[in-house]
Design goal:
The protein is mainly α and 184 residues long. The chain is 67% helix and 0% strand. The protein has helices at 5-28, 46-66, 73-102, 112-115, 124-132, 147-170, 172-183. Helix 1 (5-28) packs antiparallel against helix 2 (46-66) and helix 3 (73-102) packs antiparallel against helix 6 (147-170). The chain is globular and about 60 Å long. It starts with a helix and ends with a helix.
């Protein structure tokens, strides 16, 4: 399939925004600051950029279905899960191990913010919630904050092709009508 340079450019801007956002947070130490009250805020908002990146990726994953060349959805979904789920497992287990080992230890000055993630003891319920990627308990952010981006990537890459197949099967007007009716 032909690459869409416009989408590649948007993905590049989104990736740059994530990098600038992390640099800003590392330099400033918090998300509060003058830059978030200016027109520059979209360029340092990593969360918005990550979501945009995954929406664009989900759209691109739908294109083979638009051309009538997409493989069966179950085969596609299994392939995506095989590709994306192992990093979730690895990073959750590494985070849980680190949290278990350093819980209650004094935090070095330069790592005070990072150690705050593990203020509370790591629970098996929390680890299971992360591994199942279904939704997280309120304290889950302490286990591995960036895990949300892998979960969003899994969900977007599975949802967009499925949504496209539903629109092709039932028509856009039926899908919109169903969506409006479900909101009532």
């Amino acid at each position: 399939m032909e690459r869409l340079s416009q989408l590649d450019a948007l993905r590049g801007v989104a990736a740059l925004s994530v990098v600038l956002g992390h640099l800003y947070l590392a330099y400033n130490g918090s998300e509060a600051g003058w830059v978030y009250r200016t027109a520059l805020s979209p360029f340092v908002s990593g969360t918005m950029a990550v979501v945009l990146f995954f929406v664009l990726s989900g759209f691109v994953l739908s294109l083979p279905y638009a051309a009538g060349r997409g493989r069966s959805y179950p085969a596609f979904a299994v392939g995506r899960l095989i590709r994306l789920y192992p990093p979730v497992i690895v990073f959750v287990l590494i985070s849980a191990a680190i949290g278990y080992l350093i819980h209650g230890q004094p935090s070095p000055d330069g790592l005070r913010r990072a150690f705050r993630m593990w203020d509370e003891q790591v629970s098996w319920l929390n680890v299971a919630a992360h591994l199942l990627a279904l939704g997280f308990p309120a304290d889950s952010i302490r286990l591995n904050p960036p895990i949300w981006s892998l979960i969003v990537e899994i969900r977007a890459s599975l949802a967009f092709p499925l949504l496209f197949l539903i629109v092709v099967r039932f028509g856009i007007s039926s899908v919109v009508a169903f969506g409006v009716a479900s909101l009532l």
